[in-house]
Amino acid sequence: MACVAVLVPDLLFGSKVLAMLGQAGHEVTTCPPGPQAAASAAGADVLVVDLTTDEVNGAELLDGVRAEAASPPRTLAFYSHVDVDTRRRAQDAGFDLIVPRSRMAREGAELVAGLVGDPS
Q1: Distances (CA, A) of 118 to 2, 10, 30, 62, 110
Q2: Are the C-beta atoms of residues 105 and 76 closer than 8 Å to each other?
Q3: How many other β-carbons are positioned within 10 Å of the β-carbon of residue 112?
Q4: Angle, helices 84-93/58-68, rounded to nearest 10 degrees
Q5: For the packed helices 101-116 and 11-23, what is the interaxial angle rounded to 10 degrees?
Q6: 3-state secondary structure the chain
Q7: Is the pLDDT of residue 118 over 70?
Q8: Confidence (pTM)
């Protein structure tokens, strides 16, 4: 299973994501929002990022992770399905996979497994 760094400031949804990934067997750690996030995520296989909050600037976060890690993690971002600008900015920033929040809630563990090539 994968080592997954999660940056989800929303406590309720964040706990759901952490539980879902943990139950799937992934080793999960949380990243604090802000400048420490990139260093926290540098050793992970996958970085999961909540783009529905103003606390996270996806492009800055990815730049920081790429600067910190010799081998940057694969990235999974989620956004509010009505916020097409956020999706476009995430694509421009270079996230590997960008999905609506509802899909993250349903398929988060499978999406992470797919990013690391785990067939489970």
Answers
A1: 8, 27, 21, 23, 9
A2: no
A3: 28
A4: 20
A5: 30
A6: CCEEEEECCCHHHHHHHHHHHHHCCCEEEECCCCCCHHHHHCCCCEEEEECCCCCCCHHHHHHHHHHHCCCCCEEEEEECCCCHHHHHHHHHHCCCEEEEHHHHHHHHHHHHHHHHCCCC
A7: no
A8: 0.91
The predicted-structure confidence for 2-21, as pLDDT tens digits, reads as follows 899 999 999 999 999 999 99
Q: Which residue has the tokens 């606390």?
A: 55
Amino acid letter, 117: G
Q: pLDDT of 59-107, one tens digit each?
A: 888 888 888 888 899 999 999 999 899 899 999 999 999 999 999 999 9
Spell out the domains of the chain, with CATH numbers in brackets.
7-115 (3.40.50.2300)
